[in-house]
Specification:
Layout: H1 3-13, H2 18-28, E1 37-40, H3 50-65, E2 69-74, H4 84-97, E3 105-107, H5 112-124, E4 128-131, H6 135-140, H7 159-171, E5 180-183, E6 198-202, E7 216-218, H8 220-230, E8 235-239, H9 246-255, E9 263-267, E10 270-272, H10 279-287, H11 302-308, H12 312-322, E11 329-331, H13 333-347, E12 349-351, E13 353-354, E14 357-362, E15 370-376, E16 386-392, E17 394-398, E18 418-421, E19 426-434, E20 440-448, E21 465-466, E22 468-470, E23 475-482, E24 509-517, E25 529-532, E26 536-540, E27 549-555, H14 561-565
Parallel strand pairs: 1-2, 2-3, 8-9, 10-11, 12-25, 14-20, 18-21, 23-27
Antiparallel strand pairs: 4-5, 5-6, 6-7, 13-24, 14-17, 15-16, 17-22, 18-19, 19-20, 23-24, 25-26, 26-27
Helix pairs in contact: 3-12, 8-9, 12-13
The structure holds adenosine-5'-triphosphate and magnesium ion.
The site of adenosine-5'-triphosphate has 15 residues, from α3, β8 and α10.
Length: 567
């Protein structure tokens, strides 16, 4: 499928949500000359997570569907928390997800001079003042949800004095916390955001882009709407917590002479079961060593999911399926895993790997003989072809696939039982070799040469089919098996007073240090995604080197498959 076709078919599939409806109507009315400009505005204070993917798919998706553009804008107004490494990771993640901002890469910090001029404009029209109250006094006088705030004694400073003081703030003549610039709105407003919000503060900090040029920094609410306007954004899509910031967003744009007045529209953020989604908490997990880094495969970060083996197509499909709504909810992580399986089932080649090897000797197979058997790479994709896998007298099977004294419905290998070795032969177990302590060392079997390829020679049936690896040519690898990072469905529930870290799953990582894989794994490259037959989907980890293969389990083969099919 070429790209245009792919676009079209995904467009057809997409349900029309309320934001797309608004955008389509605006185009019909020729609002903004029928143009659509959106933006994805991350703050570079952490790595992107799957929640951001929802926002990315929405903003870039709408731009694509309506022939518009989507800007990537870094909201970098807080120098104390932001870093260049975050900017780089964000760009990498957006590209990997399959979106491209072309030359529309912007930084709020590039607007610092213009934002400062806007602040001066506000002072000049009597709508902003320098408040010399202490931070505590300002906080105390803002009131509560039920009580109005109190005017600051500095609220009626003359315009001229405000201009001079603001200039002194800018020049660095004042200390941090000595004063702030506030918008003059209404301390009695029922909306706390409108109670003379701070728009500039003194911060003698080094900024990753503007270096030491500034010692005053604009606040988020002031910066955001004006940056949108400077860039000619038509639809400014943000999450629900900004709903009661919208009056302030509009107030700045109405008070000032601005290039345009974008429309802010809010949608529900993505919450996912068994994980946390705030960057602050994810940073804490990294800093405290609960995970190996931002890209630990257990993290809900884009880089973590990538390393774990989630294909970008699956993440986009997930974002499509959850849709866009105005009510917060908690999405079952199984839906994301379902999308991942659905994609990998189509695209991942199958190989055989034994996680916990048990030696199996075929006693009637000639010593020193080997042969190559044909195996299908992907039954879902004929074009993936076949490969040859070596077979010989000494093999390995999964320890859990053998039981000396099995219960009734055990259809795998047991003394006297016959099973199929996938793509190879029927074998029957005839002997178990044990050590002095009774531990099983080897199992001995006979094979039926007439069952080559795993085909029954005479119509007799076997119930079990096992995966296996030939001893001589096996490639050793380390396999990392992941479980949910938290054992509680909603570790981050606002109603719960326990610290979310108390719900970390102590068994979220299990490592099999010496698994055996068929030879083709030796040439697999970092990032390659494979299905290990019967075990799940796996991805080659960057910790691999020429002496050691490391693979991550992306997802097991089945979960609540049937349940999810209904979605
Ligand atoms: P967090 O609360 O996780 O720290 P944030 O909102 O502070 O995230 P930003 O970098 O400001 O992170 O987010 C960039 C954009 O992504 C914003 O438009 C924000 O609304 C959106 N976004 C962040 N988290 C989610 C989420 N869970 N679901 C949907 N959109 C999100
Ligand atoms: Mg934010």
């Amino acid at each position: 499928m070429d790209h245009a076709q792919e676009n079209r078919s995904s467009k057809e599939k997409k349900s029309v949500d309320f934001i797309r409806t608004i955008v389509a109507e605006d185009i019909k009315k020729q609002k903004n000359n029928g143009e659509v400009v959106t933006r994805f505005p991350p703050e570079p204070n952490g790595y992107l997570h799957i929640g951001h993917a929802k926002s990315i798919c929405l903003n870039f998706g709408i731009a694509q569907e309506f022939n518009g553009t989507c800007h990537l804008r870094f909201d970098d107004t807080n120098p104390t928390k932001e870093e260049v490494q975050y900017v780089e990771s964000i760009k990498e993640d957006v590209l990997w997800l399959g979106f491209n901002w072309a030359d529309k890469e912007f930084y709020a910090s590039d607007y610092f001079e213009r934002l400062c001029q806007f602040a001066v404009q506000l002072i000049k029209i009597g709508k902003a003042y320098v408040d010399s109250s202490t931070p505590e006094e300002i906080r105390a006088s803002r009131g509560t949800l039920t009580e109005p705030g109190q005017n600051s004694p500095y609220r009626d400073r003359p315009i001229k004095e405000n201009l001079e003081l603001f200039e002194q703030m800018r020049k660095g003549d004042m200390d941090e916390g000595q004063c702030v610039l506030r918008a003059k709105i209404d301390l009695a407003s029922s909306n706390i955001n409108m109670r003379d919000p701070v728009i500039y503060r003194i911060l003698k900090a080094h900024h990753h882009r503007t270096k030491d040029q500034w010692c005053i920094y604009p606040m988020y609410d002031f910066t955001h709407g004006l940056s949108d306007s400077i860039e000619g954004i038509t639809h400014s899509l943000c999450t629900l917590e900004f709903e009661n910031h919208r009056p302030l967003y509009d107030w700045f744009l109405e008070a000032l002479q601005v290039p345009c007045h974008p429309q802010q529209i809010e949608f529900a953020r993505l919450n996912l079961t068994y994980t946390v989604m705030s960057k602050r908490k994810l940073l804490e997990l990294v800093r405290h060593g609960h995970v190996s880094g931002w890209d630990d495969p257990r993290m809900p970060t884009i880089s973590g999911l990538r390393r774990r083996g989630y294909p970008p197509e699956a993440i986009r499909e997930f974002c499509d399926r959850i849709g866009i709504a105005k009510v917060e909810n908690l999405i079952d992580i199984s839906l994301l895993e379902f999308c991942v399986r659905e994609d990998l089932n189509k695209h991942a080649n199958r190989v055989m790997v034994v996680l916990d090897p048990l030696k199996l000797v075929i006693t009637n197979y000639p010593v020193n003989q080997t042969e190559d058997l044909e195996a299908i790479n992907n039954p879902e994709d004929e074009s993936a072809g076949t490969r040859l896998i070596p077979f010989g007298r000494e093999l390995y099977i999964e320890r859990s696939d053998f039981m000396e004294d099995p219960p009734k419905k055990f259809f795998r290998l047991a003394p006297g039982k016959e099973v199929r070795l996938r793509y190879a032969y029927f074998i029957t177990c005839e002997k178990v070799i044990k050590n002095d302590q009774g531990g099983i060392l080897e199992v001995h079997c006979r094979y039926d040469p007439a069952s080559k390829g795993g085909q029954s020679p005479d119509g007799r049936k076997v119930k079990g089919t096992l995966h296996w690896v030939a001893g001589q040519s096996a490639v050793t690898c380390e396999v990392r098996l992941y479980d949910r990072l938290f054992f509680k469905e909603n570790p981050d529930s606002p109603k719960d007073e326990t610290d979310y870290k108390a719900y970390l799953n102590p068994d979220s990582l299990k490592v099999e240090k010496a698994a055996f894989a068929e030879p083709c794994l030796a040439s697999a490259k970092v990032g390659d995604r494979l299905q290990f037959e019967r075990l799940g989907y796996f991805c080659v980890d960057p910790d691999s080197n020429k002496d050691k293969r490391v693979v991550n389990r992306t997802v097991a083969l089945k979960d609540s498959w049937a349940k999810m099919k209904k979605i």
